[in-house]
Amino acid sequence: MENINWKEFGFGYTKTDYNVRCHYRDGKWGELEVSSSDQINVHIASTGLHYGQQAFEGLKAFKGPDGKVRVFRIDENGKRLQSSSHGIMMAEMPLDLFREAVIKAIKLNERWIPPYESGASLYIRPVLFGNGAQVGVKASEEYTFAVFVMPVGPYFKEGFKPTDYVIYREYDRAAPQGTGIYKVGGNYAASLRGGNRAHAEGFSAVLFLDAKEKKYIDECGPANFFGIKNNTYVTPKSNTILPSITNKSLCQIAEDLGMNVERRPITVDELADFSEAGACGTAAVISPIRKIVDADNNIDYKYGDEAGEISFKLYETLRGIQYGTVEDKHNWNTIIEF
Ligand SMILES: *Cc1c(COP(=O)(O)O)cnc(C)c1O
């Protein structure tokens, strides 16, 4: 193919050939539109710009050794965008339209789908926001949906290596009855200050605690948390955590591997009982955790300098399903026909 150097991609923005848009006006969704511009028209008085009426999604497509292109659990992302839309009163996009827009964006950028050998994949970023003039505080009557794709490099350039996380009690990501369960930009804005400090202090991310009691594990910045103990996969249950599709898939895989799965509140103290811990999400599947530093209490929870056996097995299985080298028992992949 053309001279694309697949090795040069990290997670930074790369302009590809086309993106797909769709507008909601007069109570209905319009036709899908294709654009080669990466600029978008935003009304100066839009609710997306002023009041944070905005949500996004993130998913990936993978080219397998068989040459087939697979998108992972596209309908789960479509449903989650509907849930986020419902949560902040945006127009909900029908699942079929979401699917069609995502698949169209992939197909139009076929030459940007990294080959299997590169270890890279195609990241897909749908976004939806209120885009009608609305200065009084209420939901917009007009929305813009857009989806772009870009190649992203393998997350683990130096292998599947654990990194460090930190607990700070002076930052909250989401309030107990707030928008933590929705994939909205506002949660990210709230996490930036803590995340920035974590990076400056040498950590991968903040492990946020529940905002009310500071007693339970919430999530790791933009990823869910899990711990392993006694052949059990334990992940927090709470009404402030974004329901990660990767986490949901790992729970199923853990079960398929004969493990127990527990979704329940996890106290900070329980961090001492896990033999392995990790952060999970689309970007990395699993980022194994080396240690969690509770700076306020001078405690380090340590999980080893190498990734644990179970984390590695879960990671390999999920990646294998995505690339088509492990049987897709639960029909998670959509194969794109070109
Ligand atoms: C997107 C996201 C995740 C990961 O979800 P996946 O569906 O696994 O990619 C986790 N936490 C937050 C806050 C997120 O926004």
From TrEMBL:
Instruction: Give the similarity note.
Output: Belongs to the class-IV pyridoxal-phosphate-dependent aminotransferase family.
Q: Which InterPro entries match?
A: Aminotrans_IV, Aminotransferase-like, B_amino_transII, BCAT-like_C, BCAT-like_N, BCAT_family
Q: Which Gene3D superfamilies match?
A: 3.30.470.10, D-amino Acid Aminotransferase, subunit A, domain 2
What is the recorded function of this protein according to its Swiss-Prot or TrEMBL entry? Acts on leucine, isoleucine and valine.
Q: Please report a single Pfam family linked to this protein.
A: Aminotran_4
Q: Which pathway is this protein engaged in?
A: Amino-acid biosynthesis; L-isoleucine biosynthesis; L-isoleucine from 2-oxobutanoate: step 4/4; Amino-acid biosynthesis; L-valine biosynthesis; L-valine from pyruvate: step 4/4; Amino-acid biosynthesis; L-leucine biosynthesis; L-leucine from 3-methyl-2-oxobutanoate: step 4/4
Q: Which keywords does UniProt give here?
A: Aminotransferase, Pyridoxal phosphate, Transferase
- Protein known as: branched-chain-amino-acid transaminase
Q: Catalyzes what? A: L-leucine + 2-oxoglutarate = 4-methyl-2-oxopentanoate + L-glutamate; L-isoleucine + 2-oxoglutarate = (S)-3-methyl-2-oxopentanoate + L-glutamate; L-valine + 2-oxoglutarate = 3-methyl-2-oxobutanoate + L-glutamate
Q: Which cofactor does it need?
A: pyridoxal 5'-phosphate
Q: Name one GO molecular function term.
A: branched-chain-amino-acid transaminase activity
* Classification via CDD domains: BCAT_beta_family
